[in-house]
Design brief:
By secondary structure, the protein is α+β, with helices and mostly antiparallel strands. The chain has one domain (10-50). 50% of the residues lie in helices and 19% in strands. It has one helix at residues 10-35, and strands spanning 39-43, 46-50. It has a two-stranded antiparallel ribbon. It is elongated, with a radius of gyration of 16 Å. The N and C termini lie far apart (36 Å).
């Protein structure tokens, strides 16, 4: 959805960006599973390695 000036509203942009981040996370987990490498996440304020 675009406005008269051709720009998307901020809410639509943040929604699209959020979906893109979710897709990127899923792709990263899939790649880590394929190669058997851990993924690093932030848990309780610390970076930890986790097997996908």
């Amino acid at each position: 959805m675009k406005t008269k000036n051709g720009k998307r509203p901020l809410k639509a942009f943040t929604t699209v960006a959020g979906h893109a981040l979710v897709r990127a996370g899923l792709a990263a987990r899939k790649t880590a599973r394929m190669y058997g490498t851990p993924i690093y996440i932030l848990r309780d304020g610390k970076v930890v390695a986790e097997k996908p």
